[in-house]
Amino acid sequence: MENFICVQCGTQFDTTARPPARCRICEDERQFVRHGGQKWTTLARLAADYHNRFEDEAPRLLGIGTEPEFAIGQRTLLVQSPGGNLLWDCISLLDERTVAEVNARGGIRAIAISHPHFYSSMVEWSERFGAVIFLHAADRPWVMRHSPRIQFWDGPTLSLWDEITLINCGGHFEGGTVLHRPGASRGRASKGALLTGDIIQVVQDRRYVSFMRSYPNLIPLGPAAIRRILERIEPFSFDQIYGAWWQAKIVSDAKAAVRRSAERYLRAISL
Question: Least packed by Cβ within 10 Å: which of 173, 183, 207, 249?
Answer without folding.
Answer: 207
